[in-house]
Amino acid sequence: MYIVQIASECAPVIxxxxxxxxxxxxxxELEIRGNSVEIILPKYDCMRYDHIWGWHDAYVxxxxxxxxxxxxxxxxxxxxxxxxxxxxxxxxxxxxxxRGVYYGCSxxxxxxxxxxxxxxxxxxxxxxxxxxxxxxxxxxxLIPVMLFENYKYDMGLQRVCYTIHNFKHQGIGGVETxxxxxxxxxxxxxxxxxxxxDFNPFVLNFMKGGIVYSNFVTTVSPNHAWExxxxxxxxxxxxxxxMHQDKFRGVLNGIDYDIWNPEVDRYxxxxxxxxxxxxxxxxxxxxxxxxxxxxxxxxIICFIGRxxxxxxxxxxxxxxxxxxxxxxxxxxxxxxxxxxxxxxFQHEKQVLNDNPDVHLELGFNEELSHLIYAGAxxxxxxxxxxxxxLTQMIGLKYGTxxxxxxxxxxxxxxxxxxxxxxxxxxxxxxxxxxxxDHQAIEFxxxxxxxxxxxxxxxxxxxxxxxxxxxxxxxxPGKEYLEIYELIRHKAV
Length: 492
What we know:
Blueprint: E1 2-6, H1 18-32, E2 36-42, E3 52-66, E4 69-80, E5 83-91, H2 108-125, E6 132-136, H3 142-155, E7 159-164, E8 172-173, H4 175-181, H5 186-189, E9 204-205, H6 206-213, E10 216-219, H7 222-230, H8 238-243, E11 248-250, H9 280-291, E12 300-304, H10 313-325, E13 329-334, H11 339-351, E14 358-362, H12 366-375, E15 378-381, H13 391-397, E16 401-405, H14 408-413, E17 431-433, H15 438-454, H16 456-467, H17 474-489
Parallel strand pairs: 1-2, 1-6, 2-5, 6-7, 7-10, 10-11, 12-13, 12-15, 13-14, 15-16, 16-17
Antiparallel strand pairs: 3-4, 4-5, 8-9
Helix pairs in contact: 2-3, 3-6, 9-12, 10-15, 15-16
């Protein structure tokens, strides 16, 4: 099968979050399964060019219709760790992708509306006719809209799978979006069953357009799919998803075990596996040496991730002090997305600076994250919402017991040792709490530490049960291929 992925990120060349990891990991898995995969991306000035091999011109003079004229673009091609990627560079005074950032500009909606238009023009004019076009998040929500309304006679019956990674950011535009992209006809698109936003009738919703016009819609875990339809996590798109429920499904993301695997991890002092789990103690010792923690018999609980409201930052803060009170050590690696949160944790870092049982590393360090995953005994993921979550899956692979809040993909990957009724005792792999108050996370931490201190053999068994789970791209890759086959053969 010939598949084209269109996205705003692909790790490691363009990565702002988990989206980049998914685009790369899924593409790699699809190729392993014998499919031909190409990826279309914007050419940002700030992307990691050092991760691209064989850079060359792919299409020199791509003229993209925009408003009443055209924008001249160049399309470049190269391989990103084996994946064939095309990078679109517009030459216009708007300077769409020469901003020094991937996101966060006041005209992001028009930047990615243009990218979507340019990607379709490139496919059309280069005579690429993939079996499936797979688009990601609001940035490409207009692609299935334009494909059906403007390109179906030129492109034929191209099938579109549309994956939503985060419902919070949906992409909003006005009538100018229609004029710019050539969709035009505001009276046609400003209707509840097409692109009109369900809460503001004067704006268009890119993500809603992607849902309405694509052949299939996925989000990144089965439980998050339910949440998006039935709770506030859908951020207003619940009704639209309900209307299109027959083509909506949650597919759990995977992680790349070539990168996140203690058996081959080059950042660890010694590799280990379930059969050599004792070697994990070398990573624990190395972590303590690197972070100047006291070398003792205490367990280490860690947090790795963004410090923001989504990740349950108030519970992270409370957990630091509670863990220390219970006779354990705490390691944090994370960067704040808001100035106020950053200032707060900088203050906490100063307060705790002389405590030999805690280290707060504010920022992100890929190499250090590997050592923390391997050196810690437990990892907390107290998210307010979590579409899929990767840290808990990585923690399981590294034998680091997850303590998670029961939301989103966390529910689909972590099964409470004491209370899960849907899995046998030998299938359980961590601890789950559901409320957002201090008592809830305290109780989960107490249960984990109680097992660690009072029943070390049982804790070791829980570690091994977690390591036995396969959260690679193997199963998601198979499921996406089934979806592709379904929409390829489904009548229009």
